[in-house]
Every structure is written in structure tokens, then in C-alpha cells.
Amino acid sequence: MSSSSVSASISHAGPIPTSSSSSAQCYYPDGKTLAPDTPCRPADAESPCCRPDDFCMDNGLCYHRGVMSRGSCTDKYWRNSACPQYCRRDHTEGAQPLQPCDMLNGIFVCGTSNYDCPTGNRTFKVEGGNAFVLRPGQVASSPKDAVTIEPSTMISGRFSSAQMVAGIVGTGVPFLLLLLGALLVILKQRRKYKNAIASSHERAIESWKHDARSVSTTPNKAFDRRHGANAVELYSPNENEYEVYGDAIQAHELDARDRSSSIAKDTYVTR
């Protein structure tokens, strides 16, 4: 599953359910808590469930405003394969969000923290997620809003890209906003990473400048005659010396024979 495949296609949950199937109860993994959810596939014997304002995904997970979560199931004991297969032992008395570690490769971790992402502990790959499963309340109810489906373009009960666009406009389902939300999450993570790198680099530079300024200076007339009165002589214990002109740093070594001082290595910083 990739970040761009979340809204790849749409499929119907099946025929309009009977009153008995549509009234099925949904349970969280603890088997005791009744969830305020509705079945994603009400025509099936058992089905994953999501909140009414969520979108069901073809892998049994729920999707809402850029966040995937494990919802509930009509099987009270969660023994049926139709129940969500992810994060079943986490927060068993309620819904459990999934935190992306690597969106491009579909790697997630249960919960809202990415603490385990760098180590790979408790991370897993989310399969599927290539289609939304529309429940009856999310499907166009009037003929003018209905999406025309040609048999030649219908594949495994899913719409083509053109039909999906028509469905977005006709039914008013904000898939475009959902897709933009997912893209914003990715861009925010990339921006945060770049800012962290830049901030770390700036701190390192400022630390270096602070260390350079903290070195004591001593008047040296011979030095001033040789390098000018605008230069400051600083002692450096390093093998390589650094001469700073604004933001440019040039490493060089000084010949001890050119110095009357016993210090073989010096650093020059222009004021």
C-alpha cells in the first residue's frame, strides 16, 4: 500500500441490505464493548465496521481525514477473517489509529507515536488499501446523482478513474480533500525532516562560532605587521588551522619557521 493508492478506486459494499443485516451490532476486540459503528459490508454474514463518517477500506481498516484506524467487527469474538487484521490487541475496548512509519512502502505501527519506527519494533506492512468500500448511505440516492458504469470498464466491481471523478462530483463525497489531506501529511513530514537537518546544522555552526569567540586573544605587534591590524590571532590545538572570512572557512597549515612564537599552529579570524 502506498500513500497515493488510498483513493485509487471505489467499490460498492454490495446490494442494498435487508433490515436484519443493516442492524447488525459491531464489537471492539474485547468482545464486550459495543461500537457506535456500522458494517462496511452489511450484505455479508460478517463484516468490519467503521464510524458513520469514516470511509471503509478494502483491507478492513477505516479512513478519516488522512488517518487510518482499526475499527470494529460484527463478529463479537473476532474469529472471522472479515474482521480487521491489524492492531487487534491494542486498545481492545475502542478504535485504534495507525501511525505511518514509511508511507511509500506502507509500513505502519499501532498507536499515535512513531517511537518504534526507527527500530522496526512492532512495525508491519499494511496490505491492500487500494479502494474505498462505499456503504449505502454514501452512495448516490437519486438518478441524477448516480454514476453510469459501462460493463467494459468495470473491473472487479470497482470504478475507473473517470468514473471516480464523476462519483466525487455527483455524490459530494470529498475524496479530493481526503487525498489532499494525505499529501499534506507527507509534505509536513518531509518539511519537518528538512527543518530538523537545517536547525542541527545551524546549531553546529553557532557552536563553532561561539567556541572561536571564546578563545582569549593576545596583542602581537609582529602579527599585526604581517597580517594587518584587522586580524585577530587565536590559538588552535588542532592539526589543521582555519582562516574565516565571513562564512567561508579555509583550512591550511602554517609553517612554524615563519613564526617567532613557540606556538606552531594558529587560527586567524577577521573581525
Q: What's the helix-strand series?
A: EHEEEEEEEEEEHHHEEEE
Compute the number of strand runs. 15
Counted by DSSP, the helix tally is 4
Q: How far apart are the first and last residues' alpha carbons, in Å?
A: 57 Å
Please, could you describe this protein's structure?
The structure is a single chain. With 271 residues, the protein is an alpha+beta fold. The chain has two domains: 3-139, no CATH class; 215-270, no CATH class. The chain contains four helices and 15 strands. It has helices at residues 19-22, 161-171, 175-214, 221-227; strands at residues 9-12, 38-39, 48-50, 55-57, 62-64, 67-70, 72-73, 96-102, 107-110, 123-125, 131-134, 231-235, 241-245, 248-252, 266-270. It has an eight-stranded mixed β-sheet with strand order 1-11-4-5-6-8-9-10, with no helix packed on it. A four-stranded mixed β-sheet has the order 12-15-13-14, with helices on one face. It has a three-stranded antiparallel β-sheet with strand order 2-3-7, with no helix packed on it. Strand 2 and strand 3 (48-50) form a beta hairpin. The radius of gyration is 32 Å and the shape is globular. Mean pLDDT is 67; it is low at 2-10, 14-21, 141-174, 211-218 and 231-271.
Set out the fold topology.
Layout: E1 9-12, H1 19-22, E2 38-39, E3 48-50, E4 55-57, E5 62-64, E6 67-70, E7 72-73, E8 96-102, E9 107-110, E10 123-125, E11 131-134, H2 161-171, H3 175-214, H4 221-227, E12 231-235, E13 241-245, E14 248-252, E15 266-270
Parallel strand pairs: 1-11, 13-15
Antiparallel strand pairs: 2-3, 3-7, 4-5, 4-11, 5-6, 6-8, 8-9, 9-10, 12-15, 13-14
